[in-house]
Amino acid sequence: MAKPNAFYAQSGGVTAVINASACGLIETARKHKDKINKVYAGRNGIIGALTEDLIDTSKESKSAIAALRHTPAGAFGSCRHKLKSIEESRAEYERLIEVFKAHNIRYFFYNGGGDSQDTSHKISQIAVALNYPITCVGIPKTVDNDLPITDNCPGFGSVAKYVAVSIREAAFDVASMAKTSTKVFVLEVMGRHAGWIAAAGGLACEKEGDAPHIILFPEIVFDETKFLKRVEACVKKYGYCAIVVAEGVRNAAGTFLAEAGVKDAFGHAQLGGVAPVIAKLCKSKLGYKYHWAVADYLQRSARHIASKIDVEQAYALGKAAVKLAIKGNNAVMPTIVRKSNTPYRWGIGVANLADVANVEKMMPRSYISRNGFGITETCRQYLQPLIVGEDYPPYKKGLPQYVELKNTPVKKKLKTKFELTGRT
Ligand code: F6P
Questions:
Q1: Do 299 and 161 share a structural domain?
Q2: Which of 108, 199, 209, 278 has its CA 20 to 30 A from that of 117?
Q3: 150 belongs to a structural domain
């Protein structure tokens, strides 16, 4: 029998280091030619499998694959496409198995967050139901850091570093101008329903008076009166107030302070735009001049200031996924296990996809200061090691040099075309 191929795809919001996982996976698979013939990547995630749009990664040179390690975003394209339950969407699952069969794909690797791990889990279930043996391994990824079991998620350390660095730098700027100009600066960060990224801003505050002076978490209900009192107190004491606000902050009624009015394929509201809401509030109620910034895609694509630990972990998880798969571990996801804080030591563990799928890990209350506007020492100890070290990409003419793959398509074998039913 011909040696089996592997399918690898990137899913959900991309990160500065998801390609480092791809690099770890492809380089490791290439070392196990006895077990894995070729790695086929899905163009735009699972959609590539459904539409038989596969990319032959064996056509990429060794140096191009190596360069993925320092290239941000998703080199093969990512997607937000929800595979519904097997009962609701049987045709999609049958199509996946049909494509896998046609291309002798016996390993399925899916690199994503909670929703994506759910997809991997469902594929492992249907493979059993349809009697097609395929080994499914999820690879964790999400800037939101909200996957359970794993100590942290690849992508988060880099976004955390970007946010901590940015609020520190912007605060230096505001502090210089505050006497006669801007008094309030608001930085909006991602994270959806979890406050991990916002919390990371708190790493910049190392002594009394350092920015950020206020962090607004999705886990804490926004209390306007308490917030304004604190802004005023900071401006009086420090001359200015630097704020980090999570995109997912809600009021007492449970409504997001800012929601773009759009929902994605998973039913998640598209968030964004809370920074101007907060800044304008400070102006209208307290009269302070403000500036605000929405870090948006800048934060999750900022490979130039990526965390070295994050890059190493992303690579290690891609590598571990292959090792797990060739040893026959099915329906699992490699995880990061923290062994100690000082010195920071970590290793690789394993979780069952069934325990990871669709679970969101929020910030524990013990990580948020009593007044609800900052982080605790325990939180700092958790976050600190994740942003340590720099791993600069190569620069040429002042610009980072990122790889753009050839992404050569694999010749289609099926006659039938597939119409996508899920919203993308
Ligand atoms: O899931 C990661 C994330 O970056 C969230 O923090 C953010 O709310 C969302 O993706 C944005 O998604 P999209 O790029 O699809 O609008």
A1: yes
A2: 199
A3: no
